[in-house]
């Protein structure tokens, strides 16, 4: 990994809700082209961190620098236009729309940023269909998004996020709620997405075998603080990480 | 039989007025899950603007077009200035603000134009159209066609355009839409603009029939509520169908049921609201929403 400017740098991020400190002085970097895992026990502050990066939460202090620019100075809706999209832990699909319409909404930031404004609507629609084919769910394109199986709905959300052509894709518990076979296929899917779409992935995940197998780099949070940061091998041997997961022995 | 047909036709005509007002209510409801109680007064106010323009010597269609533009821009500004500060405050707060707007517009119209009833020119020819012994007034036919056209244009807009898709997304899931780069708050403002346009159109259609005064829309808005509830308060198609059914139903009841006459129509409308809410709260075309707990 070169020591060039990181794609994303989180610096001194602190989030307090009243008296509760959700994140305390958290710093880490995400290098372009990598898959980075963000792990930690429940309540460690992982999703809070995602919510700050996508500007759903206003951090109390700290900086989030994306491609050399402080994201906190931009309006919330501009985050997607600058090249970051995400999926949600509990899914955030537009249930009353069809699957293809959900995916088309993902294109919005490209119209808005001017990168895709010249595209004819027909071409955008074809791209959305190709995206569904890519993820193996083309057959549900015209079905309403509600009523599909949980795994399919997760794929629809992923297709929608990819449709924005993100440089950084945030995945919040992509394996959560999936069955064994589906989880087993995810790792390969993420590696494929990384190279096919030239996108970098930052993922919150509890499924250790998936995270350790697919990540180039792992950041560990516990109770709002960063306790470890390194390659999967190094992190797995870190005593602080073992303690956080297994409790004081 | 011929009288029945006549009554159905005139019911369809008043129904299409309720339908277009209901359509305006549904548009706001879909984009922010609240009812805009000022919808009728906004329609009345814009109709007065059209009347004023005609008084200044503008041709009728030019005055209509100008009024539609004023309604759109005015409602967008209104949303930015009055609604935006309370956007996140919850439905009840917004409802109270729209009630405040209702009183404000009613008072302002009285202040500017007075309470003397004015006649409003009709854009349609006076001569009735006669088909098989049933006389259709051109006004009635015009209103029905204009309402259906508004529904068609709006449905196409939401189904086929990028902006329409973004507006639907913003209404369904604001947080997810924002993360995807949609300016959610502006989408709400556009929703206000669009519904004010629909309201202005229905105000200008109805004014030649009910005449122009600051209270002209108050009865109509109640029927529009009933129509929206009947059709399903989230469904534009439901609003139109609900309006037409209501118009015909009220007209037939008023004509053939002596007990109802003209005086109890409003009561029938309220009874319909209550009955629909009790029996089928989602309305004819609404979806039953299920909240996960």
Would you write up a description of this structure?
The complex is a heterodimer of chains A (249) and B (293). Chain A has two domains: 166 residues, P-loop containing nucleotide triphosphate hydrolases (Rossmann fold, 3-Layer(aba) Sandwich); 73 residues, no CATH class. Chain A is 37% helix and 24% strand. Chain A has a six-stranded mixed beta sheet, with helices on both faces. The mean pLDDT of chain A is 91. By secondary structure, chain B is mainly alpha-helical. Chain B has one domain: ABC transporter involved in vitamin B12 uptake, BtuC, CATH 1.10.3470. Helices cover 73% and strands 2% of the residues of chain B. Chain B has a two-stranded antiparallel ribbon with strand order 1-2. In chain B, a hairpin with a 2-residue loop joins strand 1 and strand 2. In chain B, helix 1 packs antiparallel against helix 8. The longest helix of chain B has 31 residues.
Q: Spell the H/E element sequence of chain B.
A: HHHHEEHHHHHHH
Amount of beta strand of chain A: 15-25%
The DSSP helix count of chain B reads 11
Distance between the amino and carboxyl termini of chain A = 36 Å
Question: What is the rounded Rg of chain B?
Answer: 19 Å
CATH classification class of the largest domain in chain A: Alpha Beta
Report the sheet-strand fraction of chain B.
under 5%
The total of beta strands of chain B comes to 2
Tell me which oligomeric state these chains represent.
heterodimer
Q: What are the main properties of this structure?
A:
heterodimer, A: 249 residues, alpha/beta, Rossmann fold, 2 domains, 4-stranded antiparallel sheet, 10 helices, B: 293 residues, mainly alpha, ABC transporter involved in vitamin B12 uptake, BtuC, two-stranded antiparallel sheet
Q: What's a quick, concise take on this entry?
A:
The complex is a heterodimer of chains A (249) and B (293). With 249 residues, chain A is of the alpha/beta class.
């Amino acid at each position: 990994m070169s020591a060039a400017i990181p794609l994303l740098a989180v610096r001194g991020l602190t989030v307090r809700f009243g008296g509760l400190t959700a994140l305390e002085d958290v710093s880490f970097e995400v290098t372009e082209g990598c898959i980075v895992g963000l792990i930690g026990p429940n309540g460690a502050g992982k999703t809070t961190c995602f919510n700050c990066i996508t500007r759903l939460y206003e951090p109390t202090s700290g900086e989030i620098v994306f491609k050399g620019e402080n994201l906190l100075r931009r309006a919330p809706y501009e985050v997607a236009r600058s090249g970051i999209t995400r999926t949600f832990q509990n899914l955030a699909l537009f249930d009353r729309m069809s699957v293809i319409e959900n995916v088309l909404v993902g294109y919005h930031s490209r119209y808005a940023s001017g990168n895709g404004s010249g595209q004819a609507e027909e071409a955008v629609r074809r791209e959305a269909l190709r995206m569904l084919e890519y993820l193996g769910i083309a057959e549900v394109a015209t079905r309403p998004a509600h009523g599909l199986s949980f795994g399919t709905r997760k794929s629809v959300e992923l297709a929608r996020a990819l449709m924005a052509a993100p440089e950084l894709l945030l995945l919040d518990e992509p394996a959560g709620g999936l069955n064994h076979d589906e989880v087993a296929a995810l790792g390969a899917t993420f590696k494929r997405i990384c190279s096919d779409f030239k996108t970098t992935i930052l993922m919150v995940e509890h499924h250790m075998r998936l995270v350790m197998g697919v990540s180039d780099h792992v950041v560990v949070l516990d109770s709002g603080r960063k306790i470890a940061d390194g390659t999967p091998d190094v992190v797995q041997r870190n005593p602080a990480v073992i303690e956080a997961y297994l409790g004081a022995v | 039989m011929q009288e029945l047909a006549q009554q159905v036709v005139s019911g369809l005509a008043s129904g299409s007025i309720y339908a277009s007002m209901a359509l305006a209510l549904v548009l706001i409801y879909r984009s922010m899950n609240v009812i805009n109680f000022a919808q009728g007064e906004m329609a009345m106010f814009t109709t007065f603007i059209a009347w004023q323009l005609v008084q200044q010597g503008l041709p009728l269609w030019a005055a209509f077009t100008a009024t539609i533009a004023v309604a759109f821009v005015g409602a967008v500004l209104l949303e930015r200035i009055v609604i935006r500060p309370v956007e996140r405050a919850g439905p009840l707060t917004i409802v109270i603000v729209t009630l405040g707007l209702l009183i404000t517009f009613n008072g302002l119209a009285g202040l500017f134009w007075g309470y003397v009833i004015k006649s409003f020119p009709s854009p349609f020819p006076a001569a009735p159209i006669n088909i098989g012994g049933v006389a259709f007034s051109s006004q009635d036919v015009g209103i029905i066609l204009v309402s259906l056209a508004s529904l068609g244009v709006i449905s196409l807009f939401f189904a086929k355009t990028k902006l329409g898709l973004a507006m639907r997304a913003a209404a369904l899931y604001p947080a997810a839409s924002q993360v995807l780069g949609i300016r959610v708050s502006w989408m709400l403002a556009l929703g206000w603009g669009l519904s004010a346009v629909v309201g202005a159109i229905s105000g200008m259609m109805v004014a030649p029939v009910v005449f122009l005064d600051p209270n002209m829309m108050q009865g109509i808005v109640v029927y529009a509520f009933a129509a929206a509830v009947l059709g399903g308060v989230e469904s534009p198609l439901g609003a139109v169908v609900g309006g037409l059914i209501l118009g015909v139903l009220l007209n037939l009841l008023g004509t053939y049921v002596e007990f109802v006459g003209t005086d109890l129509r409003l009561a029938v409308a309220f009874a319909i609201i209550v009955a629909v809410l009790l029996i089928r709260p989602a309305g004819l075309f609404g979806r039953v929403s299920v909240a996960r707990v």
